[in-house]
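Incident log, structure service

09:12 report received: a user says their structure output differs between two submissions of the same chain.
09:20 pulled the input from the user's history:
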Amino acid sequence: MSPKIIYNSTPYMVAEFIVFYVFFPFLATAFLDGWYKIIPLVLIALLFLFLLLKDPTFDRKVLTTFNRKYLGKSFGRMIIITILLVWFTFWIFPDLFLVYPVENFQSYVITFFLYPLASVFPQEIIYRVYFFHRYHEVVPEKYLLMLSNAIVFGLAHFIYANWVAPIATFLAGWIFIYNYYQTRSLLNVSLEHYLYGLIMFTIGFGYFFQ
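09:34 re-ran on a clean worker, output below:
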């Protein structure tokens, strides 16, 4: 049996899913601290990107297309969610509100530049681009596939060892899933992911993602 047949077989896909989307996040939680937790994320993203580029059925336009019209359509949603995040953080976690940029300005600025490269793009390659290209035939039911994506996206954030990050990312995952289904664009979904991340780090909610 050829490696290609094995790679595209359902048993292999199931095993791959368990290893990369379930096993690795908990392994990182158990054995890695701080920014070291990012290392498996980046390596897996690079591996998945390589596999996507080697796959003749993958539409490479997903990696480079940018839908400006959709960005305008999502602007209202982003304003509403930003207001809710600010209100929620100020109300539930007042001790964290604006602490990060005020007390750790240098780290805050570094986060501004490293966050998309070390976190946003790798996550969107793994959890949107690769996930929906790879598993849509294994789970043909659209909404079940979307639900499984939101769940594993939330589970991945157990690496931060708190309950807030997984719940927040499970909910945010639905926004990114919707964005990706509407645009089929890595750039569109990554930009929205990046902007929400910056908002969270700015208002202090990013404390739960450090």
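09:41 both user submissions now match this output. Likely a transient worker issue. Closing.
09:42 reviewer note: The CA atoms of residues 41 and 122 lie 6 Å apart. The chain has ten helices and no strands.
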